[in-house]
Amino acid sequence: MVSSILRILTHLFLYRSLSILIDIHELQSDGTPKKPKFLCLHGLGTNAEYFKNSLNTWLEFVLEKMDLVFINGPCSADGGTLVDEGYSWFTNNKTNATCELDKSIAYIEDRMIELGPFYGVFGVSQGAIIGGALPGMKEHGACLTKVEKIKHVIFISGGKLGSMSFPAPKITETAFSSPINIPSLHIFDENDFAKQTAVELMEAYVDPLVFYHHGGHGVQKLGIYMF
């Protein structure tokens, strides 16, 4: 009973947080608010469908605030037992994939042109790492020159490109050259193996909203979050 109440309260907090952070001005033809569209980037070795299904643990009234569009990474990667076909966004020493970051960023821009316009980016794990660098790079004209500004980001178990954990190529050198002043939500485990670099990513954004939890790496049930 207590866990059920906590889960609902946490969802209500997240719903309220999104209501504050997502500033909706556009209306649909019927006069109702137009849902902001988010490009969703999955973690290493998984895929778009896996990310989408993992969010089924979140209550509908939270997810219904956003129009979520899930895409696969451009490179194949071994997902182990998680998925039959896994993908990645850049080369990692835990995968056999050879995936260049600049080509992945160009691929993301192509998908944004094809499926957008997008209001924001929603990434988990490796998807949050590459997603975390995009707003700053866009701001300095280093990428995404053919699409609109990214207005809001949500990251689960993310990390900062250019940190000791994730060395970055020259193309990303402007990603965090100045504080990123857009609304951001950062969700990660207090004991996550990637916590330090998730904190570094969080600190790169101005006035970030943060959810801490004890549920492990990746998408978890909101009922175990604390903030």
Describe the structure.
It is built from six helices and nine strands. The protein has a single domain, classed as Rossmann fold (3-Layer(aba) Sandwich). The N terminus and C terminus are likely disordered. It is 30% helix and 17% strand. Strand 5, helix 5 and strand 6 form a beta-alpha-beta unit. It is an alpha/beta fold. The strands form two sheets. Strands 2-1-5-6-7-8-9 form a seven-stranded mixed beta sheet, with helices on both faces.
DSSP E strands, number: 9
Q: SSE order, as H and E?
A: HEHHEEEHEHEEHEE
Note poorly predicted spans: 1-11, 222-227
The first-level CATH class is given as Alpha Beta
CATH architecture: 3-Layer(aba) Sandwich
Give the helix/strand class.
Answer: alpha/beta
Report the C-alpha radius of gyration, rounded: 17 Å
* Distance, first to last CA: 20 Å
Strand order of the largest sheet: 2-1-5-6-7-8-9
Number of helix segments? Answer: 6
CATH superfamily: Alpha/Beta hydrolase fold, catalytic domain
Average pLDDT value? 78
Helix content: 25-40%
Total tally of structural domains: 1
- Globular, elongated, flat, extended or rod-shaped: what is the shape? globular
